[in-house]
Amino acid sequence: MRRTVAEHQGAVLEVLTKAWSGPEGTLRTEDVGERMPLAEAAGRVLAGDLVAPLSLPPFANSQMDGFAILSDTSQPEYVDSIESTTFTVTATIPAGVTPSRLPSGMAAPIMTGAMMPDGADAVVPVEKADPARFLAEGESVVLPLTRAGTYVRAMGSDLAQGELAIAAGTLLNAAHIGLASALGCVQLTVRRKPRVLLVTTGDEVMLPGDPRASDGLPAGKIFDANMALLRTSFQQAGVEVVLAPVVADQPQALLEMLESYVGPSARGGIDLIVSTGGISAGAFEVVKQALDDASVEFVSVALQPGGPQALGTFLGVPFIGFPGNPVSGVVSFELFLRPALSEILGAPEPRRRVLATLEHALDSPAGKYQVRRGIYEGPEFESAASVREVGGPSSHLLASLAQANALIHIPAGVTELESGAKVEVWLL
Ligand SMILES: Nc1nc2c(c(=O)[nH]1)N[C@H]1C(S)=C(S)[C@@H](COP(=O)(O)OP(=O)(O)OC[C@H]3O[C@@H](n4cnc5c(N)ncnc54)[C@H](O)[C@@H]3O)O[C@H]1N2
Ligand code: MOO
């Protein structure tokens, strides 16, 4: 059966939502959240609402270095007056202290961020004073007529105590961490990271450093790309990775290995299994042969690279099988898994999607959604955003993937694009 990209995206989302968000699911709940020191909480997803335990600012304070005064409330509010009043200067109010009440007719030199004294409701910046400098206690200063509230940051004007500061599900960035600190938080409760078992398959695959390759790569063998590539992609997407040893093309060996991680006697803790390779039409398709009669579907998506896909569960754990070609694995991750993780768990951030002008003509197979690797150049001054292909459409072209900074999307119905056409690009 042949699926569209959108259908398979929906299917992946459904399998993961069912497993992670249902009554049995633990990934989205606050109960299993981890308490993290603020410094380590960036990039994680807040587990429960953070309600402000105090107001920001916590007290009314001055927005300027200047003089705190009681405004003349007898004056009409919107007068742009050049009138001025002479005040007697009191003791200076630095930031960090509790000032004493301001007697009427007096002006207190006050610093930015210092607490407004009772009896004052406005601040005149020092440069508007005459003389335009700070004066000693007892001296006289002439200040222009000023409205109540001028250059005063009211208590709670940023956030009032009891208001929602950061909503559950927010992917925490630097500003959120700063806000939490300003609210006095030492730690935040963040959602647990999903833990993925990454399974690499293939008789031909050897890990770098394998002693069997100490005299050079044996004929017919290749060094692994997928395990390294997907492990990094997962980690960068905030997913914890458990690496399974490379599995030979023996279905029984794969089943035993999977059971050792998620079977009844396993330690558990695996939220998702992702395999690479062994799912297409060959004589030795280890994943397909091991799982075809289990609760895993093997489907063909009208997509290139990334056409063959496996999806289902293994012993109740969501199972996703990516094709073995390295670029197919990356495209599968970006099209199917990353969007589902973002939607269900709130992290990672979805890829930024932009329109760019294609620098050259491109053709694409009929009936398939094609994803080409590209070099994107963002808009600069007069020039619009543009993109050009790097490498070709084949899914083994890892070196050109490494040069790319974008994925060019060509919808299934499009077979030819002219130079200058607008294309959707996902920025890597
Ligand atoms: N007769 C057909 N043959 C193929 C079809 C098809 O529809 N009919 N589909 C092709 C497409 S498209 C893809 S994609 C691949 C997917 O194959 P598998 O998922 O079964 O993956 P393998 O055959 O195991 O490997 C494919 C390719 O990738 C290399 N590989 C595998 N693992 C790694 C690794 N860890 N690091 C680097 N490279 C890896 C492997 O050596 C193969 O070259 O099937 C097509 N065939
Ligand atoms: O779908 Mo395959 O991933 O084209 O190479």
From TrEMBL:
Keywords: Magnesium, Metal-binding, Molybdenum, Molybdenum cofactor biosynthesis, Transferase
Xref: PANTHER family: GEPHYRIN, MOLYBDOPTERIN BIOSYNTHESIS PROTEIN
Cofactors that this protein relies on: Mg(2+)
InterPro entries reported in the protein's UniProt record: MoaB/Mog-like_dom_sf, MoaB/Mog_dom, MoeA-like, MoeA_C_domain_IV, MoeA_C_domain_IV_sf, MoeA_linker/N, MoeA_linker/N_sf
Pathway terms, separated by semicolons: Cofactor biosynthesis; molybdopterin biosynthesis
Organism encoding this protein: Arthrobacter cryoconiti
Swiss-Prot/TrEMBL catalytic activity: adenylyl-molybdopterin + molybdate = Mo-molybdopterin + AMP + H(+)
Function of the protein: Catalyzes the insertion of molybdate into adenylated molybdopterin with the concomitant release of AMP.
This protein's name: Molybdopterin molybdenumtransferase
Domain MoaB/Mog residues, every copy: 197-343
SMART domains per UniProt: MoCF_biosynth
Domain of life: Bacteria
Lineage, uppermost ranks: Bacteria, Bacillati, Actinomycetota, Actinomycetes, Micrococcales
EC numbers: 2.10.1.1
Family per similarity comment: Belongs to the MoeA family.
Signal peptide location: none
